[in-house]
Amino acid sequence: MDNIALARLLDETASLLEIDGADVFRVRSYRRAAETVEQQTIQLATLLAPDADPKLLLAIPGIGKGMAANLRDLVDTGTMPLREELLTKYRATMLDLLRLPGMGPKTVALVWSALQVSNMDELEAAAKAGQLNELPRMGEKFTTKLLKGIEDYRKNSSRFRIDVAREFAERISALILAFPGIETVTPAGSLRRGRETVGDLDLLATGPACEPDVVAAAVQHVATLPLIDNLLARGQNKVTFTLRNNLQVDVRLLPRVSYGAAMQYFTGSKHHNVALRQRAIKRGLTLSEYALVRLEDNKIIASETEEAIYNALDLAYIPPELRENNGEIEAAAASFSGAATGGLPKLITLADIRGDVHMHTTETDGTASIREMAEAAIARGRKYIAITDHSKNLAMTNGMDDARALAHAARVRQVNAEMEGRIHIFTGVEVDILAEGELDLEDATLAQLDIVVASVHSRFDQPKEVITARIIRAIENPYVRILGHPTGRKLLKRDAYAVDVEAVCRRAAELGVAVEHNAAPARTDLSDANLRLAKSLGCRISMNTDAHATGEMDYMEDGIVQLRRAWLTADDVVNTAATAEEFLGRLRKRS
């Protein structure tokens, strides 16, 4: 059993304990152990082997003797006594209910004790019958939200966020690469194109062990990977399986000679590939996953690299993020011919980013201090950051009132001075946009801060015209410089609110307010389509991580992919400015 499976079982046990009303510290110990196990680079099963030194496992923080015994049971039997006891008392399907809005452990326990509801279908039936309205802390509003949550869960349960898919791709690739003679494993499909969610994984492997005459041994290796939950198919050079979270994975083992053609073919998209094959036919060629071939004599024109295939079709190389049949083929043709206009853009890269101006510290709901966030930003090559902790309306985050915001700004300025020019730290705030469009802090306070990010965190249910007017009123405040996560969505969890993105972006462009691409994978907001819209309307765009911990600053890598999908260049993004002074010059001017 691998670390992912061990962590999942420990985390599920913690959830079952919560449903059972267990002591909070006991629950927390299982949560902490799950996080620790998942983060280990060595497979803990090896530390539980009969000949392993038991001290090595106990040396891992969060793993005491009791938890070590639990891990041993899980590795040896696939379960443990406490988990079996809880599953006998409750039902495994109750864990699915925890993924629904408003269904925390106490609520799940309540509907079980009152109605014996233990799965999604039973919960939906109870909600539609009005049975939940009679329970404490529930009512018609809760039921309506819950039914929408069930609908969304069923719609999205077969899809995975790009960061989750990438993590599994990396883990699977590492296991595949352990086989001698497999030299590279590369993601293809929607993951390589950077789609914000992924339905399945395509992995292409190559190397001497993938040549046709010897590939059988490599196929056997892939078909017996420890992560596999269900082996679906096994062919001469392909293995298909699902993981324990139902993510389907297709692994193809390919000879070097056809690797480029396979990468192009399996990266897609379908519409891009259809257009490319039609272009090939017009030139007397045929394009497949094996090669670009001339029809008249069956001669291979290109196969080893994608660049060679595109060039043979009179196209410049098209980056994977653009392969959606949204005009990229025409642009690549213009670039290949040397046309002065209409060619492919020089897409933004991570190296172009100089600053990150939306992040949180321990002053509100972050986990690191001002200085720790600054040092982490320096380590990532940033030249400036803004500390933008929450305002008071977001009570759950310990948001700041006016006095605290100003005191916090003074501490930011002090730390900035102590950095001695290694990085510039702007004062700032993420101020709530209230229900009528007013802001959560006084103008006199906002006027003293460098960066004011205005965001909606409540009343997502307002009608389109109301929430659109609300946001426009907020950005008309002269101190707002950035509109944070403009549509409020949470990928696979919460739809965007019904805002008129075009109207908001048009007004933001007129005012000089930057619209944010929030790079946190849970948000990815604005979407790639809305980013293209924003650019077309002349909007300034700011990409930020909304980091609540130092490691979350790496979300910038996810954001870059979405900006590239939107055809954006470094010139389109305000925080590519080389210096703090230049960055401020790109923002809305203060009166």
Helical fraction equals 40-55%
Largest sheet entry: 7 strands, parallel
Q: By helix and strand content, what is the structural category?
A: alpha/beta
| CATH topology annotation of the largest domain | TIM Barrel
Q: Can you tell me the overall shape?
A: globular
The helix count comes to 25
CATH architectural grouping of the largest domain: Alpha-Beta Barrel
* Stretches with pLDDT under 50, minimum 5 residues: none
Strand line-up across the major sheet: 11-12-13-14-15-16-17
Instruction: Tell me the total number of β-strands.
Output: 17
As a percent range, the share of strand residues is 5-15%
Q: What is the CATH top level name of the largest domain?
A: Alpha Beta
Can you tell me about this structure?
The protein has 591 residues and is α/β, with parallel strands linked by helices. It has 4 domains: 3-90, Orthogonal Bundle (DNA polymerase, domain 1); 160-254, Beta Polymerase, domain 2 (2-Layer Sandwich), CATH 3.30.460.10; 260-337, Beta Polymerase, domain 3, CATH 3.30.210.10; 350-586, TIM Barrel (Alpha-Beta Barrel), CATH 3.20.20. The chain is built from 25 helices and 17 strands. The strands form 4 sheets. A 7-stranded parallel β-sheet has the order 11-12-13-14-15-16-17. Strands 2-4-7-6-5 form a 5-stranded mixed β-sheet, with helices on both faces. A 3-stranded antiparallel β-sheet has the order 8-9-10. The protein is globular.
